[in-house]
Amino acid sequence: MLREIDLSRKITKDEYKKVMTDLELKLGTLQRRALGLGIPVVIVFEGWDAAGKGTQINKLLLSLDPRGFTVHPINAPNEEERLRPFLWRFWTKTPARGTIAIFDRSWYGRVLVGRVDKIVPKKIWSKAYDEIVSFERQLADDGNAILKFFLHISPKEQKKRFRKLAANRSTAWKVTKEDWKHHKQYDKYLAATEDALARTDTAFAPWTIVEAHDWRFATVKVFTAVADALERACAAAERAQRSSRKRKAPARRDDSASSILDGIDLAGAITKDEYVSSLKKYQRRMMELEHEVYLKRLPVIIVYEGSDAGGKGGNIKRLVQGMDPRGYQVIPIAAPNDIEKAHSYLWRFWMHIPKAGHIAIFDRSWYGRTLVERVEGFCSEEEWRRAYREINEMEAQLVGFGTVLVKFWLHIDQDTQLERFKARQRNPHKRWKITDEDWRNREKWDAYKLAIDEMLYRTSTPLAPWTVVEANCKWYARIKALKTVVQAIEKKL
């Protein structure tokens, strides 16, 4: 693709001035319009060294309100970033609704520099294309306008620019040995770039190739592409507002009337002696494994979901009872706050992904979108249906990074739930645990059962299976969960 680009294209100074005056005013207007509509914007600048990425970013910023954008210069990952899945550092930089995130280089480093310089093994960078496409699709589905620019120059032009920079004492620092090394590898980088462009050019996140020999031509092309994309995004958002429909949950599951929950035998129970003996055994082993997890730099994520009064809190308490609190974190998930609502729903969970060697325990999780948000109508049907794929993709990336991912559904029957609700009301020290919302949710038992069944059916994958914990007996549930976590970590080690 790049070999066919005509790099001789240019415009005159007078043409440039005439066109840019209108484009600059238009961009400012569109930025305000996007802010009003709550459209997040992602702009990626990739390209050859000395192609003018910094110049184009600076010119673009001068036309925008500085309160509405953030520039992210992306360098090689630091220690903190290397200890997490590679997309983590980009998820945490995604823009809030109505703001613009500009990336000076981006997630494409893995399939460009990481590939050519053999910093990343082939088995890892070859998977990155699919991860990048799923990342960009999830952002686009959440309403992000995504623009990706590749600034293209010839090797001859690059060499000329390097020499000019190196000849000036005030700019010589900009040209490094690494830059000259990459110049000699131009053909290898060209092949890697062609591959990346072909495999990640999508309708929701297309590439724009910018002929960058003439900076005026390049600037006009960048400004025009940004203006056109913002105009399309604003028009689409306005159409969506006009045609928005009332959200509601469907009456039944798509493809099966059978129930996973109905097939669960809740009679599992153990004696107090069995419980005490097993609890000591597995808590002692968890204490040992936490140390091994740290030494081997193994990331561990444990997800707890379950019925109200299913015993999640007590279960988590027994899991961590003998562990060093410096090695784990319990993350309680409640309704999203205003900052979290301004991002993709997965953003707040990516913010808590543990670094390698640490354990994260989620007390409720990203599955809220397919449960409470679905049943209560806090998201659209399109959003919770899409979430199954998005969650599976996210979990595949976590496991692909080497994460031990354990997912528990703690299940109890309606009679047991009622007994526990009443017991909480009678106990002044536990009365805070029972709320009006719990009673309202109980009245929607059948709707939640439908949502739980479909969630288990669609998101129990070979990479990230669900473990259903029969939780009518709290002792039995605690030991099953502990044993499952121990076995999963031991297997990975």
List keywords for this structure.
single chain; 493 residues; alpha/beta; Rossmann fold; five-stranded parallel sheet
Folded structure, characterized:
With 493 residues, the chain is of the alpha/beta class. It has two domains: 2-242, 3-Layer(aba) Sandwich (Rossmann fold); 261-492, Rossmann fold (3-Layer(aba) Sandwich). The chain is built from 20 helices and ten strands. It has helices spanning 13-37, 53-61, 79-82, 88-91, 113-116, 122-141, 155-167, 177-184, 186-200, 215-242, 272-295, 312-320, 338-341, 347-350, 372-376, 381-400, 414-426, 436-443, 445-459, 474-492, and strands at 41-47, 69-73, 100-104, 145-152, 207-211, 300-306, 328-332, 359-363, 404-411, 466-470. The protein has a five-stranded parallel beta sheet with strand order 2-3-1-4-5, sandwiched between helices. A five-stranded parallel beta sheet has the order 7-8-6-9-10, with helices on both faces. It is elongated, with a radius of gyration of 27 Å. Residues 249-253 have low confidence and may be disordered.
List the helices and strands and how they pair.
Elements: H1 13-37, E1 41-47, H2 53-61, E2 69-73, H3 79-82, H4 88-91, E3 100-104, H5 113-116, H6 122-141, E4 145-152, H7 155-167, H8 177-184, H9 186-200, E5 207-211, H10 215-242, H11 272-295, E6 300-306, H12 312-320, E7 328-332, H13 338-341, H14 347-350, E8 359-363, H15 372-376, H16 381-400, E9 404-411, H17 414-426, H18 436-443, H19 445-459, E10 466-470, H20 474-492
Helix pairs in contact: 1-10, 2-10, 11-20, 12-20
